[in-house]
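Listing 4. Sequential folding, example run.
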Amino acid sequence: MAKGTPATGAVAKAGIAHRLHEYAYDPAADRIGLQAAEALGIAPARLLKTLMVRCGNEVVVALLASDAMLDLKRLAARAGAKSAEMLDIPSAERLTGYHVGGISPFGQKKRCRTFIDAGAFAHATVLVNGGRRGLQIELDPVAIEAALGAERAEIANNSA
């Protein structure tokens, strides 16, 4: 296993039971989360993508299944904003300290309010990015919610 990341360090420091999974990251993949789920042989609903979203004047983290689409209107409403839009790549990388394809909800440079799709709680464990391309952390979604102070919300629309 390669050296740790701020994400793996944050999960370990929080005392969360977890497992690390490495896979061959494909930089040419159209949808990174779906490629990771396929490479790891798991259902895409169990692999959560980490999206950085601007809701009004606030940047938030949205965690949802890799095969789902984010409902920006629902997220904006839950965040108390009139609108929401995806954060541009340079801003997301600068804010989190991670590269796209390796953005984790854990260990970000600037902690942002986090929303986790309610569908994640249908699974005993889910996977989130481990802080670098090709690394996923498997853990209980309730542990993610507790450690990040995440808000459980219906933010995904039907699978895409």
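-- end of first protein; second protein begins --
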Amino acid sequence: MRNMKVLFVINPRSGKGIGPDIEALIRKQAEGDGFDYQIHTLGLAPDEEVQKKITNYQPNIVMAAGGDGTLSFLANLLANTHIALAVIPLGSANGMARELGISQRPDFALSLLKKGIQKPIDLLQINQKSCLHLADVGLNARIVKRFEQDTRRGIWTYARHLFDEIFLMKTYTFLISCDEKMFKRKAVSLTFANASQYGTGAVINPHGQIDDGKFELVILKPFPKIELFSIAWKMFRHNLHTSDYVEVFSCSKAHVICSRKTTLQIDGEIIGKVKEFEIGIMPQSLNMLIPPESK
């Protein structure tokens, strides 16, 4: 590992916060494994700063210390390059780390710099924005927006906003073109899924694979409020697709028009209100560093 260079990109605003020991852990790992490294802390203009750092330093690996939003931001910069992306999961949810079998322990994540393997994975493009993990409109996106505006973090904060939204549940009409199929659906949520699960462990897309050149449209139809627990149970049992209120379509491209503007979230970040979505797949366009057993 003597010739390996790692750029650590630290997001101090990530959900769990960056403890004072993270740089000490990085230094210890670098001394033990013998790799060269630099640390960059995200500021107010991250795109320009990080791209300049990558260009000047020419790392073999960029390792994010943050959550899904930090990973998604770096994936956009590293797509279709020879540079691999790794993660120390420090966000509120860490859905992509969970997807890849990466422990929440920083020491485990750092150990992958030596023992991990590189896996080419797909990226989505949604209205010209890259998506690494999951994006959606409707119910979950509004919960994410509430969560973003809350100073508290954690699963219980998310659950509280979920119950608030359930009682205000809105229905939308979507005109959907998925590859060669065109159809209309009423739904409370529409998910564009590259991966299979949220950071909570709830599986929205049980058959999702991040390297198959496809993504899934997961449609959650209007449901009686009493069915919420049944739907949640199926998500945690990995069989949501068996619900009467769910449809799943596998696509390589899609075009969606909503009956009215609605909030779009991508990888846990609110993009804004939009009415029309263009979704495409970029097959195996990003190298991710993963545990050997997750291959």
